[in-house]
Write a structure and sequence with these properties.
Elements lengths: L1 E6 L7 H7 L5 H7 L27 H12 L4 E9 L2 E3 L2 H7 L7 E6 L4 E3 L4 E7 L6 H15 L6 E2 L2 E6 L8 H14 L6 E6 L13 E4 L3 H6 L3 H21 L6 E4 H8 L9 E3 L1 E2 L6 H4 L4 E4 L3 H14 L7 E4 L3 E2 L4 E2 L9 H11 L4
């Protein structure tokens, strides 16, 4: 089982975020300001030893620490978010720094997070910050040529001599077939056998153009919450949200509107009943609590724990066949603003990472 962790690069300043959210904004900004919203709600989340790192540091010390830590606990690699808007890029510096330091021992691949950016975190979804556009063949060539430098990196994950390209919202790309055809042609011209395209199963529209892609990865917990609960489970979850929204609106209080027991989601994730004509890489998550970003409009998963995580991993490992394509996607390595991370914090220290190592060695205490 090769574990890939989703990796967020938004831990450094960029001019756009400074303009949109205020000078000095990084992912840590919302994390530090978080407040508890219900009994036993642990907020703010604090990285172990107050390690509020900066990913724009040219010395790459954080990258070296993260790679060493990941390797030590058995993680195969990172799936790094990449933000490309028809030639305009955001948050590209951390991955470029990694490329410049070949001595850092970590496998990685790109996940194109192809979403329009809005003020969703402040419930202003219609206020667009930067729009996602895809352009035509010349734009696709420019995009491929930028990614090519990473594809050529010996650390970049390849399957059958095809660089792996994960796409978060592939269903949003109208001309996906033509775009991938262009990418494949350019990849072959550069010595590869094409591109290995992995579409995300997430909380949005699912990709049904199976002839265009090579595989899916399950982006949890959003995929299961949106698409895999039964009718009764979905109804119970929805009615609770509706009642809390009414209460907030008419009594003018601010209680958390979305809360769900992680044990319910884990049970569905590990039931193993999914079928697909394409390879599906399973997914799992350690924790989830995006109230640092969204406040009382956020979503918190309760009853998460390293032991629950370990048990789920153990079951998933038994389900996954032992071959070259045994990837398991963990969301995430460092989504601190969503309370969804493996990096050590002041509450659990290294326990979630220890659970991974224990599964791989089948030894948990």
């Amino acid at each position: 089982m090769k574990i890939l962790c989703m990796y967020l690069p938004q831990f450094h300043e960029i001019s756009e975020n400074n303009n949109w959210w205020g000078k000095g904004y990084t992912e840590w900004s919302s994390v530090k300001k978080a407040k508890p919203l219900f009994k036993k709600h642990v907020q703010p989340k604090i990285p172990l030893n107050n390690n509020y790192y900066n990913l724009a540091s040219e010395d790459a010390k954080t990258w070296a620490w993260q790679a060493k830590l990941a390797k030590e606990y058995g993680i195969y690699g990172f799936c790094i978010y990449h933000y490309w808007f028809k030639g305009k890029q955001l948050l590209e510096k951390p991955m470029e720094i990694l490329l410049e330091h070949p001595e850092i021992d970590i496998n990685y691949s790109i996940c194109w997070a192809n979403e329009t950016w809005t003020r969703t975190w402040y419930s202003l979804e219609k206020e667009i910050l930067i729009s996602q556009e895809y352009g035509s063949e010349n734009d696709w060539r420019d995009h491929f040529n930028y990614m090519l430098q990473f594809f050529k990196d010996k650390r970049y994950i390849k399957i059958n001599n095809k660089p792996m390209l994960n796409i978060y919202r592939s269903s949003d790309i109208k001309d996906l077939k033509e775009m991938i055809c262009c990418f494949n042609k350019l990849a072959i011209e550069n010595g590869f056998d094409g591109i290995y395209v992995v579409a995300s199963n997430n909380n949005g529209d699912l990709e049904n153009r199976t002839e265009v892609i090579d595989a899916y990865y399950n982006f949890e917990p959003g995929y299961t919450l949106k698409h895999r609960l039964n009718v009764l489970q979905s109804f119970n979850y929805g009615i609770k949200i509706w009642l809390k929204q009414l209460r907030n609106k008419h009594i003018n209080i601010k209680i958390l509107e979305r809360k769900i027991d992680a044990r319910q989601i884990y049970k569905v994730i590990i039931d193993g009943s999914e079928t697909s004509s394409k390879k599906v890489f399973k997914g799992i998550f350690p924790m989830w609590d995006n109230t640092p970003r969204r406040g009382y409009k956020g979503l918190a998963y309760i009853n998460t724990s390293p032991k629950l995580f370990y048990d789920a991993l153990l079951t998933l490992q038994d389900q996954i066949k032992n071959d070259e394509l045994d990837f398991l996607y963990i969301n995430a390595w460092n989504e601190w603003g969503e309370g969804d991370y493996l990096e050590p914090d002041e509450t659990y220290k290294y326990q979630y990472l220890e659970a991974i190592r224990a599964v791989l060695s089948k030894n948990y205490e």
